[in-house]
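Model it.
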Amino acid sequence: MAAARVVPRWGADGLVPGIVQDAADGRVLMLGWLDAEALAATLDSGQVHFHSRSRDRLWRKGEESGNVLRLVGLALDCDGDALLLTVEPAGPACHTGDRSCFDAGLAHGRTAFAAGTPQGFGWLETLWATIGDRAERMPPDSYTTSLLRGGVDAVARKVAEEAVEVVIAAKDDAHAEAADADRPWASAALAGEVADLLYHALVLCAQRGLSPSAVLNVLRGRHAA
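Modeled.
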């Protein structure tokens, strides 16, 4: 893969820092150090390896705890002297049992990051990339293409339809909860309708040439207010 061609500018000690980031939501999990051996082992095995400075040896993250880090992506910074390792963690990254080595600051108010269960919002980048590809190539057998060819009216109509269906599914879920009925089925139906709404909203953004980052900037601004 492309990552195999990564050649860092090693430090005088033969090491480079490796920043580990959760692929699901972008959370920074830890920082470790890699030498050429650790980088090669990471690429060969698909699991993140580091060079232990205290023990002066190669070590695979999770070799004792089982909390391995599966490599998803690898990138160099602009100066070539630091690595970003995007991973799927098998468990907590920190030896303390915390999800992130930076979670200790949460208890003391040193970071504004909200702790909690990761939701995997980072995967929406994949969906947006797929929609962008359809908008650029317009393959004839694609549902996204058919929406885009219909113009703003076609896409907006679907957004409105899906919004109504979300409301109906939410009310069905609330009724199921109150009646102690088949809640899993109702919750699954609601999840499906919300998924449809998110997808069609992103297609509408693509049709109008609006970057989702502009929407996120609005949300950030409102959150900070």
